[in-house]
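thought: user wants a sequence for this fold. calling inverse folding tool.
action: design(structure=
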């Protein structure tokens, strides 16, 4: 267990980002792709509410739903079906899909090469995480919305998200 907030930095035999490393990354990140995001018709679910919050505090959200083929836009942004369709750069790939479903997107994640692949707590796929780490892509496991909300300011964009620096 990591001494800060009792979060494991080594889980499933993997070296994951520490809370301090996660927060440092969120301070400079601008673009977050959300794999497994839910559309407005499922607005009550975390996989919609958390990306909505992140958008409100200034991050550019790129939706990649794994279901809902009829949906063309989420949060006012065109939905993409494959990670390889995303415009670079992507700072964070936030994973909201089931671990087995992530495996079908692993090659796309490796091609995309985000600064970090951030699995929502409990959704990490250990074999995929090992491949990401082996390719030099850091991995985090935590609730990205909770982590961002715990930072100050929690409801205002940082300078990086405002586009004015950092």
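)
observation: tool returned 166 residues.
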């Amino acid at each position: 267990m990591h001494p800060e907030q009792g979060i494991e930095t080594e889980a499933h035999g993997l070296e994951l980002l520490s809370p301090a490393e996660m927060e440092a990354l969120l301070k400079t990140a601008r673009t977050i792709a959300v794999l497994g995001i839910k559309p407005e018709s499922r607005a009550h679910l975390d996989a919609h509410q958390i990306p909505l919050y992140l958008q409100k505090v200034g991050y550019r959200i790129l939706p990649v739903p794994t279901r809902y083929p009829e949906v063309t836009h989420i949060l006012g942004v065109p939905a993409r079906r494959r990670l390889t369709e995303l415009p670079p750069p992507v700072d964070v790939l936030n994973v909201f899909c089931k671990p087995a479903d992530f495996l079908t997107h692993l090659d796309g994640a490796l091609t995309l090469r985000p600064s970090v692949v951030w699995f929502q707590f409990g959704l990490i796929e250990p074999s995929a995480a090992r491949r990401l780490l082996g390719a030099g892509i850091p991995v985090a496991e935590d609730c990205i919305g909770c982590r961002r909300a715990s930072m100050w300011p929690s409801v205002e964009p940082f300078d990086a998200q405002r586009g004015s620096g950092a």
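thought: summarizing for user.
answer: Here is the designed sequence. The chain has one domain: 15-154.
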